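Feature request disguised as a bug report, sorry. It would help if multi-protein outputs had a clear separator. Right now it looks like this:
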Amino acid sequence: MKKISILLSLILSISVSSIEPYPIEYWAVESGLNDVQVSLDGKYMSFEKIPSKTSPREIHILEVDNLSKPPFVIGGEKMDVQNYYWVSDQHMVVVFSQKVRQGIKGFNQGIFNYKTALLNLKTQKFKELDNDRAVGAGKRFATRLVDRLPSRKDEIIISYAEAQRGQSFKNPAYYIYNFITDKKRLILRTGDDIYGIRFDQNAKPIRASGFDAATDEYIWYYRPEGSNSWTEYHRMHEDSFETFSVVNTNNMKGEIYVIANNGEDKESLWKYDIENKKFTSKIYGSNESDLFGALYHYNSSKHPRELIGVTTFTDKFKRLYLGGDLSLEVEELYYQLEQIIPNSYQVSIVSSSNDSNTYIVSNTAPNDPGTYYLVHNNSFSKIGSKKPFLESEKLASLEYIKYPSSDGMEIPAYVHIPKGEGPHPLVVMPHGGPFVGEYITYDTWPQFYANNGYMVIQPIYRGSFGYGIEFHKSSFINGGQGGLLMQDDADWGVKYLIKEGRVDPNNVYMFGWSNGGYYASIAATNKNNLYKCVIAGAPVTDLAQQGSYYLNRIRGAQEIRQKGYYDGSISPIEVVSEVKVPVLIVHGDKDQRVPVKHAYKYAEELEKYNKKHKLIVLEGADHFSNTLTYDHYMTLYNGMLDFIDNDCQN
């Protein structure tokens, strides 16, 4: 394999004798550069960009051999780019969003609608892919790009899912769409019993999932070669907390690779015999954590869905290769890239031309918000960074620790360490969810606090995904542990850092968003006498109210998990009388996941009991961070620092 010749200029280190916090504007602006891709022929490079602090997101397209030429820009005043995909040398599918209503329609029904369109770069015109389907009173359609077809230059697979007003989307119909002739033909129309269709590179359906209502079991299907019917190869009861995920789909013959538990606590990579319906051998597993995911070849056109290894993520992201010529070639390439990229940490090839002569490399690290590089005909150059005004030398380092909770359970956590000598003031930042994974490389919120002098601990409390079934189930299987052992998982991290002499015990705070905001609301009772004040962002403050949105619509493992958690967990609204420290509540008034009435009700109760508090409502903000604008972030960051500096000190 050819070596990469380095054209990247040497980056000089910045000597920093004392770190002054960055202006808040630096943290409030969104990514300057994001989602860099190359066209399939390698002729064009594209990326998302927000040209000014209040502008909608755009796509810029440049010629790789003439990057100084002004770009072709996609965007508009009303429509905001969400994501995009190159599907040919001259065509890309773009998904737009637009604000279409003033208020939310209910739980998980926000103020934005989405539209999918195909751009012809040669004519610079769009074709709305779902325009001809949006007919009928009260009907709406979700259009999705399912797959490119590398063997068919002008065709892609798309799906349409239809919904009537007030109803969920039906299972989609799948089509081959020729974007040159603007014709489509139906491949498959599914019923309610078959879903999750996957296709091979010739657009033939090869695997799917289903559900057997008679036995309450999920079913995995494949289509034998030459057959037009589905054959079952695996079953799992809906109450099971195990996983079974197929990770190679080039062909469904003989033995396939799956990531699954197979009766074990942690997920591993297995070989599975689909004809005899059984696991045959374990390829790789860890006693510490689940696998993070599958590792595929970076060139999805030349080697579509080619499995070359697996990934893990505990202290950091790691690749484990299966071996073989293709795997070794990719391993060698990544090794080269890691040697020449400054602050290399999580290096990934994120986009490639069909011939692999042009590709995009990204690096993300605790002290690198994300930097992109272009490799073109074996030359290497820097494209730009997500936040170019943040210098790596001024950003906090990241440490992965473990400590015992109140019952002895080992809790992993990430710690951002500010510049300067300790002991430091501490911000505890529990993640949302609660049933999600926590995997950190660069993270803006803890870096913001660290830049202002605070150490930040992000506990991976019980119930989180990634550390096995028992760690997950311990948060709800014997009664909900919200506000109880799950709260201790955060509090005992504080005690651990204080004992280590790294934290000032008189300056400990908690900030969280969503379920992290729930944690902060509970921490306001200060049962372990640790916190000076708390900041609750988009908090779930009334568990009964939140549960009423969806608990009657779930079943299986999800029902066991959610109802078990709600049964016994502490609801913040019910313990307001026990609040001992000042509380700042921040909430978006267009929040579709945790409606803003959670904040209003909680603030009213705090007022009733004469508890010191502030309420900041972010106008027009939804629940999710990608809906927060520059103005929202300016209000949030200024409000948090002002609250700690003033209200918490009295």
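(second protein starts here, but nothing in the output says so)
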Amino acid sequence: SQSEADAQAKGAAADYPASLKVVADHARSCCFLIADGVNPSNEGRGYVLRRIIRRAVRHGNKLGATGSFFHKMLQPLIDVMGAAYPELEANKARIEAQLLKEEEQFAKTLEQGLKLLEGELANLKGSVIAGETVFKLYDTYGFPTDLTADIARERDLTIDEAGFEVEMAAQRQRARDAGKFAVDYNSIVKVEGETQFDGYDATQGQGQIIALYKDGEQVDEVVEGDEALIVLNQTPFYAESGGQVGDTGILKNETGIFEVQDTKKSGGAFVHQGIVTVGSLKASQSVEAAVKADLRAATARNHSATHLLHAALRQVLGAHVQQKGSLVASELLRFDFANDQPVTFAQLQEIERIVNREVIANTAVSTELLDIDAAKEKGAMMLFGEKYGDEVRVLSMGSVIEEQNFSIELCGGIHVKRTGDIGLFKITSEGGVAAGVRRIEAVTGVKAVEAAQKADRDIHAINDLLKAQKDQTVEKVESLASTASSLQKQIEQLNQKLASFQAAELLSQVQTVAGRATLITTVQNTDAKSLRSLHDGVKSKLENAVIVIAAVDGDKVSLIASVAKAFTAAVKAGDIIKHLGQELGGKGGGKPDLAQGGAPLNDKLAPVMASLTAWLEQKQQG
């Protein structure tokens, strides 16, 4: 009716300014987030960003926008806010690329999700979309529930919100169950006050046991064989934090020895996790604490190298590089950072050169406690999303350029005294770990020397095989690769000729089945690629026919069948291959005129191929 049409028009007009506000507000939020180093992802703040982008795109579509439009909102934002927030202009290309990539991905997601929804709606009984379907759209395709609800309203349907919440609750429980084996020290350790950390300049010290825990309960004593948690009033053991692993070592006194296997934090308390190896330990006793100094030194080398790596990455790749995670252990360092593209081999080498230049310079590493404003003024790198107190520890290292150190970051970890203590820095791998996040792994000190020596051993072994001098490796390999490529082409040509000869020989095996020329045969020592060439050779000489060939290659059987198009109404190539696959314990399929498959070689091959003539006669006559 006219009144209903007027009401709908009025509703659309009311939505119009609301959608405009959503697009404008979300454009501002998304651009700021990406400029600050956040990338769209499926977890944490990255997932929040992804949801904001998708909501904005949906409202843009409601306004009639087609194609990719949201990334174009950046320039108007720069025009209005660029002077106050110059990072927008500085990161313009990256922000636009991220928004465009996400828009295009959402378009695919939308298409896939709509197909699923259309399929569900086609079989829907009643007017309520099941909560399970709503959850699947949300969880698998990233469909916001309000988007599914909008589509439902357009079709006079509703969604089962209660059912959706049940599915969400089940997912949360699965997530909790997946992490149930992790020790929650905060729920176990209840200690007033804080542990005094004395480990920045020492690996040995003394402390008093202020709490003991066994099997999740506080106890007064632990004895030999007990796995326990020990809290000291002061300790040289570093507790896992900021990506650096916790220290290991020994706590001991006249009554017992405790092997510390890890050190964690619980509030302000440092928790020493391990096992009593000798005697017993009691609450209030004093102990001597000794950190494994060699592991501590190796960890410190890797931690300091991580800071130099971060600065080098920003220098080579750009200021958009920001830390997304790290692991600093005695064996290696792992550094995750924001970057859309893989780091090239040339860039990795340049990064290595820059870090090792700072190592060779052997400059002093300095730390100072500053208030947060002074740290910012000094130019210290701060991680997006991290919470900092009023006073922070600022670590400076590397060459001084324009009155500023090569690397300045906030860090509470253990570091070397001078950059030269790192010894040598060597990147061992680079790869992607998530959308817009790359990971570099590297080693330092003796481990770096071992990595370099392994590379030398590999080159030496290759040269021995090539009978080449060290400076001839690449030249010899290129020559061998060229020769191998040439020989491969010759082999393919010879195989084609051989297939042609075999095809001519196979023509003598052609028989008539149900009034049609038919070839059923098995060939030996023929791989799948050669089988296709053989088949094509036969078909070129036998056009209107049914052709079935089994090729044995080692312990595998490759199958191919073709049926002239004039005969496909009576028998199909795909049916032939499916029949053979079922009989031989394999699988396959294809079009009515051509199909392929495979199966393991077994004693059934000969009788199955022999019985195929009767099967075809029955099939074609039926």
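Even a blank line would do. Unrelated, but nice: The longest strand covers residues 269-282.
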